[in-house]
Amino acid sequence: MNKQTLENNFFLILSGKLKRYFFKNLKTIILLVSAFVVLSCITTGIFFTSGGSAKIKLSDYGVGRVSDRDIVAVKDISYVDEEATRLRREASQRLVPAEFKFNTNITQGAKRRLKEFVIIAEDCLSSSNDSLSFALEIQEAFPVFDQKVTSAVYSLKDPENFLNSCVKIFDAIMDEGVVSIPDAGMESLNPSVIDCVYMDGKNIIRETKEISSLITLENLEAEVIMGAEEMGFSNDESRLVYSIVNPFFKENVLFAPEETEKKLEAASASVTPIMVVIEKDQKIIRKGYIITDENRRDLEAAVKAGFRDDWFFLYSSISVLLGVLAVTVCLFSSKIITRKLAFSEQVFLTASFALVYIVAVSVSHLGTALAPEIYTLLIPSSLMVMMAYILIKDTSVVIYTVVLALGVLGATEMSMISFLFVLLSGFAGIRVVNKTERRIDMVWASFVLSLINILIYILCIVVTKTEFQHLILICIGAAFNGFLSGILVTGLLPVFENLLNTATTFKLMELSDLNSPIMKKMLLAAPGSYSHSILVASLAENACREIGADPLLARVGGYYHDIGKMDQPEYFTENQTDYNKHDDLSPRLSATVIRSHVKLGVEKARQLHLPEKVIDIISEHHGNSVIAVFYSEALKQEENVNPEDFSYPGEPPSSKESAVVMLADTAEAACRSLQRPSVSRLEKFIKELFDKKIENGQLDNADLTFREMDLIRQSFVQTLAAYYHSRVEYPNQKDPDELPSENQGNSVSQGNPAPSGNSSGNTKKKKEE
């Protein structure tokens, strides 16, 4: 085979692997490329918006201070004088009259109600014999009128004409409009006039009225009396008119806030902004002169416009983003440290990186030109690192912290103080939350991190030889950064726990409470399964602690692995007394009942919103192993039996914790059949159980080493020996199984493990001991 052929084969193999790698990690690649494109666009936008990265410290040029140097504009700059423009817009808005609308429905309703009163009053006048009966009839229909008013109407010489005059006066005022002046909302409007809008058929009539001439509820009495007197009524009769029509008046000219706001916006938009132009080479601030408000505004505009085109910032930021993308692809798509991250975890890490990057690039390049030792304290890196570590609980977060620091380095124009602070503060955040088990512990962790941040920041200043002022204020800012990060983690964590459905330490501690409703229900419904689960949890927790896995996850997985048995507890031996329900069932039906507890357990777990890792343990704690007892019974009754009909529906364990719970479940169930379970018997029996699981391929996906299997076995033996109160073995002591007298006549073999999952004794016939 020549060299050319070897090279062609190499490239064919390489291209095939790359193709498989690409499609295998397609979602991850799309996620990271999208993040790169978005962050690159934001970086480019900020670059052109800020026009460079001039580092003028505005804090050195406060109003009233004497400038120590000349500052000259290096290019033409124009900006809007916001204060002058604001004053002009306010003046324009003060000329805008408020808009009110005439409500025809209210007007017609009020008129109709008064006419109903007049009709009833006229009927009562004709039917009543005296003023008392007239008053009673009127008050029955209109309780608002007292006897004084009804008596006055009854005693009139021509009450019908009087009432008709009341209607005319009322209609005239309602047609004019009773205006409702709001208590608030008109402060910035024209204080003298308003616009009233009427509908005349399909035509809109807009009328401007003086506020002083408006009819309101406050001056309504005077308007009615004046109208009555103009019709020739005496003062007493005019007041009687008011007493009659007053209850029927309604405010029918109402304030229209939306239309008024549109008029204000139009008036504001019509004002041309007042522009200030600074020409190139014009002195913005003169050395030795006192800085005025105008000088300060000019300087701020110059800083925002930028003093130099710093293309290095753009190139360096995009290059760093490319490097971060490459590192993150490797981090997300392969088992760099311990495990491949779930896609939801990848999304969270990517989003948190993007947030920190955007904040870093914004505070360092937009707005006022803050010094690096100031804007670094505004970057929420510790918050994101601590949140990531608590949610993911994986050492890959350490690499994520390095990636985050590199991103900040590119975003802040290669600021070493920002890079070091983000890196070291992130490591410190991981350390302080590593041992927290309760949410209240986060408060103490926040205090600790705030103190560590002070030391880290001082170290960063010393290492980078950064000049600084106001050390005390900087230290307070560093402490506040750490403390606020811890407090925000405490507040935001429940939200992200539910969004990611992740098994955080805090969530697992809450789930490990045996006083929870589901555990109490299990204790009452399936007490045998409850006791079995408690011991399985203890076995799994101790074993995981020995091999460096997550003991808390294993404990919770042990507690919940058999919650599917609660619906049919009587079909499982640990919950039975003298009667075995499987005696009345066929092997297939018995196997179906036993298999179903896995599916039911997963369904209950999802209803309880248990973390996905706990659900995985429930679904995998039997793997896809065969229910040997009922499979053997079926073979006796049928010729062709499919083992899959008697196999559990799950997959082999995919994590160490899940595998340990499987082994603990099998060991605890099987070892209960042992007579006089000594240490040596337990060791031998558990080893056989483990070998059986390995032989059946149930541990192929769990990444357990032979050393870890040995540690698990030893932990199980110690825990079970203590549980069964096995006596201590002395030197040269022989195993009871090796004594001839013990072996003779022993009709029950202790070497055959009970079937996993349905505990020993889940047979068609109960064993007699």
UniProtKB/TrEMBL annotation:
Ranges of biased composition (kind: Basic and acidic residues): 728-737
Superkingdom as given in the UniProt entry: Bacteria
SUPFAM superfamilies xrefs: HD-domain/PDEase-like (SSF109604)
Transmembrane parts of this sequence: 29-48, 311-334, 346-368, 374-392, 397-430, 442-464, 471-496
Signal peptide stretch: none
Ranges where the record places region Disordered: 728-769
Pfam families the record matches: 7TM-7TMR_HD, 7TMR-HDED, HD
Keywords for the protein's UniProt record, in alphabetical order: Membrane, Transmembrane, Transmembrane helix
Keyword check for Transmembrane helix: yes
Composition skew (Polar residues), residue ranges: 741-762
Residue span, HD domain: 529-670
Record bears the keyword Protein transport: no
InterPro entries: HD/PDEase_dom, HD_domain, HDIG_dom, Metal-dep_PHydrolase_7TM_extra, Metal-dep_PHydrolase_7TM_intra, PgpH_phosphodiesterase
Name the UniProt record assigns to this protein: HDIG domain-containing protein
Organism: Candidatus Gallitreponema excrementavium
